[in-house]
Amino acid sequence: MSIWPDDIEDAARRIVADFTERKLMIATAESCTAGLIAGVITEIAGSSLVFDRGFVTYSNEAKREMIGVANATLKAHGAVSREVALEMAEGAIGNSGADVSVAVTGIAGPGGGSEEKPIGLVHLAARKDGKSIHREMRYGDIGRSAVRLATVRTALEMLVEISAD
Q1: Mean residue pLDDT across the chain
Q2: Distance between CA 19 and CA 152 in Å, rounded?
Q3: Which of 18, 130, 134, 140 falls 20 to 30 Å from 153 in CA-CA distance?
Q4: CA–CA separation, 118 vs 71, rounded Å?
Q5: DSSP E strands: which ranges in the chain?
Q6: Does residue 99 lie in a domain region?
Q7: Helix axes 144-163 and 6-22, enclosed angle (nearest 10)
Q8: What domain count does the chain have?
Q9: Cα–chain-centroid distance for residue 62?
Q10: CB within 8 A of 115, min separation 6: which ones?
Q11: Phi, psi of 12 (to 5 degrees)
């Protein structure tokens, strides 16, 4: 019995099957989800053929040290920003043996939001072959767990989108 909602596990299962067939490796860089994306992918039997590694970079220091997010980017835009998400996705590729990456940074709540960056704001980025895509999601103040699960769903969608030929 899986701990994951059926739709999320089904999406992960499709990714593992597709990436196995195409011989693509994945790396994740996660802040607000703290490893949930890596967790759902590795829930699937056979995921070792497609999952290289996951970086849980909850602090700014971890973002800098583990995946090379520039201090200047963090200072100029804040950890929850398009720019940081894109650098996280690039850093995950650069610090792994992966072909494809997905990165997430956001405010899951219940605290930490502001008028400019409200609870439920998440920036996601995916990268493959030097190309990046970004999504800014505003899930709203729907509860910490719901924001994190919604982020996992969007991240899995982006893995499919960035890897489409």
Answers
A1: 97
A2: 18
A3: 130
A4: 23
A5: 26-30, 51-56, 100-106, 121-128, 131-138
A6: yes
A7: 30
A8: 1
A9: 15
A10: none
A11: -65, -40
Peptide bond just before 5 cis, omega within 30 deg: no
Residue 11 forms part of a structural domain: yes
Tokens matching residue 35: 């490893």
DSSP class of 32:
T
- Whether 44 has a pLDDT exceeding 80, the answer reads yes
Domain annotation covers residue 1: no
For residue 28, list its beta bridge partners.
54, 102
- Only one residue has tokens 């992966």, namely 98
What CATH number is attached to the domain comprising 46? 3.90.950.20
Q: Which residues are within 8 A (CB) of 11 and not within 5 positions of it... i.e. 6 or more apart?
A: 153, 156, 157, 160
The residue-averaged pLDDT of 80-109 equals 98
- What are the start-end ranges of the E strands in 75-130? 100-106, 121-128
**How much is the pTM?**
0.97
103, β-bridge pairs: 29, 125
Residue 165 pLDDT = 67
Which two tokens mark 8? 């999320």
- Strand-pairing partners, residue 116, are none
- Alpha-carbon distance values, 22 to 28, 43, 49, 163 (Å): 18, 20, 11, 10
> In the predicted model, is pLDDT for residue 2 greater than 90?
no
Residue 150, in any domain of the structure: yes
